[in-house]
Every structure is written in C-alpha cells, then in structure tokens.
Amino acid sequence: MKKIGLLCTVLISLTILTGCGGETQENAKSSESTELKTPEKFGVKLENLDSSGTLKGQYEGKKITVATRTGDHETALKEAAKYFEAATGAKVEVQSFPAGNDEEKIQLDLSTSHTFDAVLMPVANIHSYAASNYLKKLDDYKDVADPELDMEDFIPSILDLYGKYDGELYAFPYKPDTQMLFYRKDIFEDEKVKAAYKEKTGNDLTVPKTNEEMIEIAKYFTKSKNSDSPVDYGYISMGSTTNSRAIWMNREGDQMVISKDNQATVNNDATKQAMKTMMELKNYAPKEWTQLGWDEANALFVEGKALMMEQWPGLINSINDENSKVKDKIGFAVTPGESPVLGGWSIAVTSSSKEDELAYKFIEFVTSKDGELLKVEHTMDPVRQSNYERGEVMSSNEMYPVLLDSLTKGKQLVDADVPYISAQLNDILEDQTQSLLNGKQDIDKTTNNMQKKLKEEIDRAELE
Fold this sequence. Notes:
Layout: E1 40-41, E2 44-45, E3 63-69, H1 72-88, E4 91-97, H2 102-113, E5 118-122, H3 123-131, H4 156-163, E6 164-165, E7 168-169, E8 172-178, E9 180-184, H5 185-188, H6 191-201, H7 211-220, E10 233-236, H8 245-249, H9 269-282, H10 294-302, E11 306-311, H11 315-319, E12 330-333, E13 342-349, H12 356-366, H13 393-396, H14 400-409, H15 422-437, H16 443-460
Parallel strand pairs: 3-4, 3-5, 10-11
Antiparallel strand pairs: 1-2, 5-13, 6-7, 8-13, 9-11, 9-12
Helix pairs in contact: 15-16
Protein name: ABC transporter substrate-binding protein
Keywords: Signal, Transport
Signal peptide: 1-21
C-alpha cells in the first residue's frame, strides 16, 4: 500500500459540580483530598465511570495527550477527562486547533513529531490515518477492555462506517452526524392550508417520505408558482461549493458514490435520477442557491422564508435562537427517500503513543454507555442506541427520535471515503455538481465526468 507523507500526574481529587443532576460541591473530607461524587446526567446516575472496575488508580503519574478541533469537541473531552483522571490517577492533556488548521497540525504530528496519544477527528481523516498505519487496532486491547463495553450497543451503521477500516476496528464512534429534513410544522398542520392543498393537488398534505412527494409539496409552496403560498420557497439547502453534493447524495437510496473496494460508481441510472430530483428542487429554491453556505442558508430558513430544509442537526441552534422567527414551529423527519448522508467524528489511539494502553482506556471511557453522557450537553450526541432510551436523554432534545432513525438509515458518508485522497475526490464531486446546477452541462455529462475524474484520481493514488 502506498504510504502518504501527510502534511502533513497525579490523581485529581475533586468534587465535580455536574450540570444536569443539580449536584452541589461537598466540603473535603480532609485538607488533602476530596471525594468524587457519582454524577447524574439526564436523570441517570453514572455509576460505571471506572469502566467496570478496570480503572482503579493504576495509571497514576502517567500522561496522555489527545488532539482535536477547538470548540465543543475540546470542551466535551475536557469534561470527561476530569472523571477519567480521578478514576485512573493519570493526566489527560487536550490540545486543540482551530477549524481549517486542525487537519494540517494533527497530520503533521502523526507523521513527524509523534506527541499525540489519541486523536478525535472526522471519520474520513481517521480512515486515512488507519491506512497510513498511524493508528492502533482496537482489538489489540481486548485483555484490558471493559468487560461491559458492549460493542453491539453502538448504532450498527455508525460503528461500521465510523470505526472500521478494511474490516478492522481502528476507532470508536464519538460524534454522529446526518442530514435531516426540517419543516414548518405550523404550516403542515394548518387546517386551512391543508384544505387548499387538497383542493389544488388532490392529495393530503403530509410530511414527504418520497422524493416525488417532496417535489410536489415544494412546488406548491413556492410563491413564484403559487401566489397564495405562506412562504417564498418550498425547499432550501446548502447549494454552495463544498456542500452541494449532499443534495443528490441524499436521494441515492442504496447507490453509493464510492464502492467498498474504492471504485467510483456514479455513472448509473440511480445517480442520474437523484440529480434529476435535485434539478427539479432547484426550481423551488432561492435563485442564489449556489451561493448559500451554512450561515446564509440557515438565515433564510430561520427568517421563515422556506417550508422545508435539508440540513445537519446543528441547524437547531439557529432555530431556537431568541431572534428566530420559526422557534417552536419546526418539525423533523428523515430526508425523503430515507437514505440520508452521514458525517461524524471518531476517536482513535495513535501508533506512536508511548502510553497506548492508557490512551485506549481513555477513548473507551469517553464512548462508554455512562461516559458518553458526559458529552451530550456539549452538542456531542449519543452514538449508543441504549442512551437514546435512558433517563431523560430522548426528551432532552426534540430532534433525537428522528436523529436516531436517520443515523440508523444512513448508508454512506458525505465525504468520499478513500484513504489519502478524500479531499481531492470531494472537490471533483463539488466541481461537477456546480457545473450541473449552473447549467454548464447536463446530467449525463455530469455523471460521466464524475466517473472519469474520480477513477483517474483513485488510480493515481495507487491504492492496493
């Protein structure tokens, strides 16, 4: 296989003040130490933060460094580290880098400096690291693993796509992500609107489950097509470069952009039909669609301009903002066609770690049934099926029932998941999608160009 030169303690005895459980600090039992209380999150007492007795202070004086992106990922890791340090006696240093700079910094360290013991990164990066032999196989740690680890509790599609490379487990899923359908439930539930829709189309107004239903509804609720529409646009999503491929990838069903053996598979009827649907939806989206990125598209939706939007779960933060015009008016559904693309983050142990066993216990801890509940309030949603049903977790986020359903139905990553060249392949997908959206070429030429260019890039990578 071609190797890439990728640009490439002391026991903390604290009483932690927990967020959801409402617990308070206690005075120290002595002047030298205090007792770590069992935290409560979402009404669940987290009583297995010693990994079923496998963490018992035996790593005192040792230290690991974990790398990730600045922001919520860093905050969530640091929160969990407090409890891990108390259980192990070890020290966890979390180093973070701003988005746009993190990939270069972490890849450079993995190939040269070797200071990181574990990394939390997007899935496609993790797979490239595994292909470059920068990561440890997690089966190597079976002898020290938590006997209650319960690998079958991870959402199956997520464990397979996020954790495995070439059939081997290299990482634990950490943060799941998938596109969802956000819709104006106040409009869908309005009896007058429903009656008018029925009279005009002959069909009942229901949240679309198929691509055909979405097209019909989007057309009806586009003001340029229907002056009585209560919104300007029937549909909106991110149509800008780096985002637009998701629009047709959400439509592909069982079709994959890249096969499991790293072959391009886009020049076919399924992809052409997906693109046909995208081009139809373009008629019911803003004219500036191809200029709409995350901020611009979200702003239009929370201003109440569109009936439906396909977007990543983070949109909920804008919806619930005090200035939002659609707060408490939004419903959630699986993307029509029920094959949403996935994003996500995984956490892994580096091959160069001098404390790899301790690093393994840390990544196991933060993704355990109890351990991952420490991250949820920091926008890191659960990856374990059981946690969506524990305590008040499901009711804590109105999106969670649909998020779980979407994650279960997702079949492929939005990033072309080929080691070393994911970014290059994504560029090809975006360039060709933009040429189609902007009328520079038709669907047949688009799929043909994609197939040819993807194959050429994969062949150049000399993958085995």
